[in-house]
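Field: sequence (string)
Field: structure_tokens (string)

Example rows 1 and 2, in order.
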Amino acid sequence: MESLIEILGWVGSIEVVAAYALNSYQKIKSDSLVFQLLNLSGALFLIINSVYKEAYPFTFINSVWAVIAIVAIIGIIRKK
């Protein structure tokens, strides 16, 4: 179980960094569904990892990150 949670933490980190890098290099836009889904899934994986490791400040920031992504996804879906 610990290995799975460690893997989720790494995958989440890679997703959040990938979203940022792809946006910074203008490969995806910040108002795209792909960008927001990368942020959401990355944040969720990091929440799992940080709760398991009892790193609650990181749980908090990733929870906020996830909420921001959810609100943005709802906005994107409503536009379509």
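Row 2 begins here:
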Amino acid sequence: MKGQDKLKQIIPIMGMLIFIVFAVIGMINESVHVAELITRLILVSTILTLVAYIFNTYYEPELSSNYVHIMYWTFILIGFIPSIFLLSINAYILPILLTTALITTMIDSKLGLMTHLVVSFLLLMVISLPLDIYMMYVVAGLFVNYVIPYVKKRQQIVYVALSTTLLMMLLVIIGHLMQVGNLVGFNYANMFLAGLNGMLVIVLAQGSEPMWETIFNITSQAQLIELGSANQPLMKRLLVEAPGTYHHSMMVANLAEKAAIDIQANYQLARVGAMYHDIGKIEEPKYFSENQNGENIHDDLSPDASAHYIIRHIEKGVSLAKEYKLPKNIIDIIKEHHGDSVVAYFYNKAVSHSDGFDIDVEKFKYAGPKPQTKEAAIVMLADCVDAAAKGFNMEERDMDQIVRLIDQVILTVVTNHQLHASPLRFDELPIIANAFLQVYNGLYHERVKYDRELIEQ
């Protein structure tokens, strides 16, 4: 763990040093005065320190992943280094927006926004970017950062690319009008180059997603959307082979998604992780109550044997996830959604039939680990709440019961120390509880009672 922490410190420092080296090269090429060179280097170092601070402040979900650190700095270098050398060719073809688009697409939109503003200013200071061109990139970057998260289908990439192209061209015209006041002497070639730049940014950012996913072993939002489809092979298998588990998983997904939205976690990851969290039950569905039709197979098993079959759905789920090539963060949620908790029902049953002999609690515990992310912790809470709610008879499922149930389940999970490894904060637990309540309120709200005789007429 210490080695990882050191690496997290080293990576930003390495990034800054690389930046400074290329900044020096760019400045020397411009024959900048020594005093100005020193001033700019101080400014560059300060701004890059701010970039590192922004990463650690505005991006929490994957701070444990060194791959994300490396990817983040890679994306910045992709925009920064070519810009230093391309400026002497044409200022309208700088790949500044590509950094913004890649960070927004592959990591986080808020991080992409903050990085765009800082890196744009960095380029203005380092390579003396003209103010009108600087403003063009700033405004276009804000637009790209805003629209990319809304790209849910491949066809939408075309619209975003076209709109970015038109915006870039319009900004070139506006920049010229602000300086000259009319279109006399307007360079149409620069306008078309800027438009082409805008189009290529979107195409390259969206088209290169599979490559970055493979290189850095991460899951993009587009991939999560694809995995969240009910037409995925594993989802089809779950519906056919373990229908009770399928419907439970969909309910957990609804709970997890709402809670993740309310605490500003990765709601798509939480939803997809919840959809797949119990896929291990496909292998032996009849050992789980939601798939049983009157006959309980555990009536003929010892408590420790029953616990064994229950616990191993985690191992089987991980195996299936790897077979179907699910991404690592989904596999982690499958591993972690029970933490190292005890299968309480069968442990208590074993104790009640022990005749005073000690019962080894380790035989009744999940292997863990405990949830390491907010999304995994949310899935754990949603899973526990829905499993407990399923124990109510239909006539018992009123909102007062649900409120008490949610509070009790969350309290139990916390007191069993299942959340301490996750970054979930205590002040977020009431928000999660309220999110769960809203979902159940939509499910169990009072319905108008219709006169049966009128309906049958």
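free_text_note (row 2): The domain at 221-444 is CATH 1.10.3210 (Hypothetical protein af1432).
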